[in-house]
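Continuing from yesterday's entry. The apo prediction looked reasonable, so today I'm repeating it with pyridoxal-5'-phosphate included to see how the binding region is handled. Same sequence as before; SMILES copied from the compound registry.
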Amino acid sequence: MKTHAPIINDSGPSDAGQDAAGRWRARDLAVLWHPCTQMREHPDTLPLLPVARGEGAWLIGHDGSRTLDAISSWWTNIHGHCEPRIAEAIARQARTLEHVILAGVSHAPAVELAERLLAIAPRQAGRAPLNKVFYADNGSAGVEVALKMAFHWFRNRDGHDSGRTKFVALENGYHGETIGALSVGDIPLYRRVYAPLLVECLFAPSPDAYLAADGVDAAAHAEAAADALADLLDRHRGDICALILEPRVQCAGGMRMHDPVYLKRVRALCDAHEVFLIADEIAVGFGRTGPMFASEDSAVMPDLLCLSKGLTGGALPLSAVLTTQTVYDGFLDDSRDRAFLHSHSYTGNPLACAAALASLDIFASDEVLARNRDTSKTMRDLAAGIGRHRHVADVRQAGMIVAFELSRDGDKRTPFDPALRIGLRAYRAALGRGVLLRPLGDVLYWMPPYCIDAAQLLQLAEVTLAAIEEATACA
Ligand SMILES: *Cc1c(COP(=O)(O)O)cnc(C)c1O
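Holo prediction written out below.
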């Protein structure tokens, strides 16, 4: 097994494999337009990694070289690539029922998955539990569903002059890139160009602990952010139908973490203002931050819970919006346009539901959450060493997420000149050493599949340090 195979330098174990990789690269660049990529930069500034197959935390090239998937392929892959039990469940389902319309039709995987998601969903004392599941087929679509449901619920209740037409979201939040989801996101890179197309959203200050002033702890900073939110809700009394946030970690916003007290406060404020609380756990759901769902850290149950990414173990696209009897009842009527007509062709796809059921079985049989607690400790110990690097301004962790904030002088006040593209340099340096990191700006992070083992974690830590060293050598 070759663990440190160079990807950029051409000295792999098999010439034939290298040739194959080169041919796939060329064919790719002739026809594919890659997501989230300035294509002009392929393949010189930005390398392109052809992958032949996956195995656990490894991505394996045509020449047999191994690259560690340290970001779970955009945070989706939680049990490792080609997990045999998930593969088998999909194969079995494909021979049984591959897909069927979900309007007016039912199938066992969709029903069983809904039952099991509701059984493990966050609960809160004194609240009627989440008890209905609406499927869509990707994270952004799930967010659209939740936003439209909240808006439509008030329309149904208050009629067309319902003033509740606005959403509240957090600064630096991310909820996907379709027009509605983009409207409630606050990352300029994705949002700026499309601003004229977006629906109105009010942004509240982020509880992000990294933004806390010197001497202010994370909890106090979160309380202050909640106070500011309270003011905003007061000023817009009667205008708002829902508030959407990412509990615990603003992932795409740079793995920025906040104290769980914030969500507790938000829950109370939403109740006081009769605003629906939408928890977007698309990235943090399914054990990523420790508990099954990040809302549990705050002992809070949202009115709408968006799930995707890890839902199928990373095997197939699927999303689910869990909600309450109260929300559901708001759509019951004789009239068609009071119903929630939102639909996608592949809603509740049986293959994806079967994969999700297999993933939930793995959580139970492999005691994944308990194992993650041990893995998180190892990650914490390894990260501490990297935190001492002179260009690391902050190391933060929430369960199976660790992030390193890089800066010129190793403090919060001296970010690197973006033109240096330190993050991109680190990406290339790590890839050349057999690790796929995909920094968010100058934030490097680990978000590995839960099956990552001790040897792989050690490689990850060594390569991360080497990548930081190489990337910052220009500064
Ligand atoms: C990835 C993500 C989305 C969007 O999901 P897609 O499947 O990529 O559309 C929404 N919200 C959060 C928090 C995410 O991380």
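Comparison notes:
- Residues 1-12 have pLDDT under 50 and may be disordered.
- The radius of gyration is 23 Å.
Will overlay with the apo model tomorrow.
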